[in-house]
Design a protein that fits this description.
468 residues, alpha/beta, eight-stranded mixed β-sheet, 21% strand, elongated
């Protein structure tokens, strides 16, 4: 009887020790599956940090990406050597808070808000904020009524952006997405620009900051960097951190321009995490959680009562130039318009290579004057007719007088292309009002060339309205 009592007491003592806090915050690796490790950590919380410590003393932080009973699935932030069944794993705190300061402007930081530009530490005071933010009541989002000057003529003319709008830039590789982002950052009239470089090649980060963004653009920008060689956890977290920083400056009554290059890499990072955690793959291997995380991230951008605005521009890396692939299709559905960059226009040395006919801003009609809307629609119509007949025109088979709209388009085609073409390094940007005046001049020139007596018989204020 004494032996049984002793065994019972020993079992109770062992259980009490096993369920004590220090014991539950230390675990060991049971197995691994690709980039993730299965660890026994009964107190682990989804998203909490862990620290891997090998027998040789090498250390690396990671994150819990899934829970399986008393065991969890943890993914390290970096590659480690020497991991075995004796590797200890320490459970750390759930870190979803970042300290933000106004001194972030003009700096380049990582996913933790730490500077990586060699300019020294960032001083406070700091405002601690959750990187996942909080949802905004849809009835507390004022209507978007004011245009944002992007400094890009083709966008300002035909796909005008409103303050608080979500817009996507869609293109294949090497067509000029990053260059266009840099031009917008340099020339926009937004108060603060927040740029998230997610999954960028390490070589291109410094090139973007020095060449595309430039010294003037950096002065009013915050750049968050997570390069392609980093863990998918870091890439995903950097996107949330960048959005949180944009929200901070919006709450300071600023008109913020938020740009992410690219949301495709954010989706790919979440695909890697989801597949490693055991989620079933869907279209092109993307897990269901990817398509739920994208709207949660993008819906944080926009207007808010009693605060400034966040205008979001997200680049989409279109795989194989297939604009109907899953991520492109999902982003189009979430955003308030899209700008398509054409490989064909880029091959003709027309930069920015914005395909006006393939692009749309769903809020343009609400942020420009009725006159601007009419003229833009008229010129877009002429451009569409020219494109239909372009092959015939190039081979000299088009007979003048066959199509009235094509005749008008021929008169102003080169000037219209010249208006939309801008140099990357030197840009003499026109305001939206100045661009409208130029558009009216081109429209009148086209009408007068086809019908010389048209302007003499009509009141100039109603010429375009009546013709259209």
């Amino acid at each position: 009887m004494m032996k049984n009592d002793g065994a019972l007491n020993l079992a109770q003592i062992h259980k009490a020790y096993e369920y004590s806090i220090p014991y539950q915050k230390i675990g060991k690796i049971h197995s691994n599956h690709g980039m993730v490790f299965e660890v026994k950590l009964p107190r682990a919380v989804l998203g909490s940090n862990v620290e891997f410590v090998t027998e040789s003393g090498e250390r690396c932080f990671g994150e819990v990406v899934a829970i399986k009973g008393e065991r969890c699935i943890a993914m390290p932030y970096e590659e480690m050597s020497g991991i075995n069944s004796e590797t200890r794993v320490y459970l750390k705190e759930l870190t979803t808070v970042i300290n933000i300061s106004e001194k972030f402007v003009g700096r380049v930081i990582d996913y933790q808000g730490k500077p990586i530009d060699g300019k020294g530490p960032i001083d406070g005071p700091f405002d601690p904020r959750s990187i996942f933010g909080s949802s905004i009541n849809p009835l507390e989002r004022p209507a978007i009524k004011e245009p944002l000057d992007t400094g890009i003529h083709s966008i300002n003319c035909f796909t005008t952006v409103g303050k608080g709008q979500r817009l996507s830039i869609m293109a294949g590789s090497g067509v000029g997405k990053s260059v266009l982002m840099g031009m917008i950052a340099r020339n926009t009239n937004a108060d603060v620009t927040v740029i998230a470089l997610i999954g960028e090649r390490g070589r291109e980060v410094l090139e973007f900051i020095d060449n595309d963004l430039g010294e003037e653009g950096l002065k009013k920008s915050v750049v968050i960097v997570a390069t392609s060689d980093m863990s998918p956890l870091i890439k995903a977290k950097a996107a949330y951190v960048a959005t949180t920083i944009a929200e901070y400056f919006r709450d300071q009554q600023n008109d913020v321009l938020f740009m992410m290059d690219s949301i495709t890499r954010f989706a790919m990072a979440n695909r890697e995490i989801g597949l490693s955690a055991g989620e079933p793959p869907g279209q092109k291997g993307y897990t269901p959680s990817v398509f739920s995380k994208m709207p949660k991230l993008m819906e944080r951008v926009g207007t808010m009562e009693g605060a400034g605005t966040i205008t979001g521009i997200y680049t989409v890396l279109v795989e194989g130039d297939d604009f109907d692939e899953p991520i492109s299709d999902a982003v189009r559905a979430i955003s308030d318009g899209h700008i398509v960059l054409s490989r064909e226009l880029a091959s003709r040395n027309q930069f920015p290579a914005v395909d006006v006919l393939g692009s749309i801003s769903r809020l343009m009609n609400k942020v420009v004057t009725p006159e601007h809307r009419v003229v833009a629609a008229h010129l877009r119509d002429l451009m569409a007719e020219y494109r239909k007949m372009e092959d015939l025109i190039n081979v000299g088979a088009y007979a003048k007088g066959s199509n009235n709209k094509v005749d008008k388009a021929l008169v102003i085609h080169e000037e219209l292309i010249g208006l939309m073409r801008q140099e990357q390094d030197f840009c003499d940007c026109l305001s939206i009002e100045e661009l409208y005046d130029r558009m009216v001049e081109l429209a009148k020139k086209a009408e007068h060339a086809v019908n010389p007596e048209f302007l003499e018989k009509k009141d100039e204020r109603n010429v375009l309205d009546e013709e259209i």
